[in-house]
Amino acid sequence: MEDLTAKQECASAFDAHHPPSNEIIEKCVHCGFCLPVCPTYVLWGQEMDSPRGRIYLMKIASEGAAEMNSTWVSHFDSCLGCMACMTACPSGVDYGKLIEATRRADRTKGGTVAGRKAPPAIYVRNFTRPDRLRRMRLPLLVYQNPDCRPSCGAWVC
């Protein structure tokens, strides 16, 4: 029995540190009350783009029956995080914790998942630093509006 449990843990698509809680996943009774309140399901009508479908994907990934590929990740990226499903759920599934753990896992397991590229270094070095953003303000303003011109020592846009 212990070997089977160890094998399932190894086969899981999630890392061992912060996987989505199986207790929360098991609370979902797949009733479908979340479907009409989920904006992505209403828009596309695809089961895997609904909270119920995403919970199913989490379950099969934790069992090792699915891997994190670009299609799998896209279903979680399409979730708006509005949590309307949580208020509609009669079982009290804490979908917020599940989606948070899944998104963290799909971005950390194996570095870049599903062919995602790391953001270019120029973005990381500049757009995460307020002091550098302040210095870039004027050049970006000029770039945005080519009608900007210097007038009496000040820029007029």
Walk me through the topology.
Layout: H1 2-11, H2 22-27, H3 39-44, H4 51-62, H5 70-77, H6 84-88, H7 95-108, H8 121-127, H9 130-144, E1 149-151, E2 154-156
Antiparallel strand pairs: 1-2
Helix pairs in contact: 4-7
Indicate the structural class: mainly alpha
Proportion in β-strands? under 5%
Global outline: elongated
Summed over residues and divided by their number, the pLDDT gives a mean of 79
What does this 3D model show about the protein?
A hairpin with a 2-residue loop joins β1 (149-151) and β2 (154-156). This protein is 53% helix and 4% strand. The protein has helices spanning 2-11, 22-27, 39-44, 51-62, 70-77, 84-88, 95-108, 121-127, 130-144; strands at 149-151, 154-156. 19% of the residues are buried. A two-stranded antiparallel sheet has the order 1-2. It is mainly α and 157 residues long. The termini are far apart.
Short précis:
53% of the residues lie in helices and 4% in strands.
Q: Which terms would index this structure?
A:
157 residues; mainly alpha; 4% strand; disordered N terminus
